[in-house]
């Protein structure tokens, strides 16, 4: 296993992600854990429910390779045209 010289440092929203997971957009299921950011592999629209939001919002025309620094609980299938989305946590 790789040595992590930062393992004893406190996590913060601004710290680099220590986890990543593929996201399959769903109108029903929440993500397994809230994200620090989203990586968008193939550009398009992304319909998200932010951690503290009362309703979803569509982020339009997000470019491929973009990292969105947004904490989300859900990426909805309806309204999402982007693909290969990775949650960074």
Can you give me a brief rundown of this structure?
The chain is built from no helices and 7 strands. It has about 90 residues and is mainly β. The chain starts with 19 loop residues before the first strand and ends with a strand.
Main β-sheet description: 4 strands, antiparallel
What's the Cα radius of gyration? 14 Å
Total discrete domains: 1
What low-confidence regions span 5 or more consecutive residues with pLDDT below 50?
none
- Tell me the number of helical segments per DSSP (H or I, 4 or more residues long): 0
Order of helices and strands: EEEEEEE
List strands and helices in order, with pairings.
Layout: E1 20-23, E2 37-42, E3 44-50, E4 57-62, E5 66-68, E6 72-76, E7 83-88
Antiparallel strand pairs: 1-7, 2-5, 2-7, 3-4, 3-6
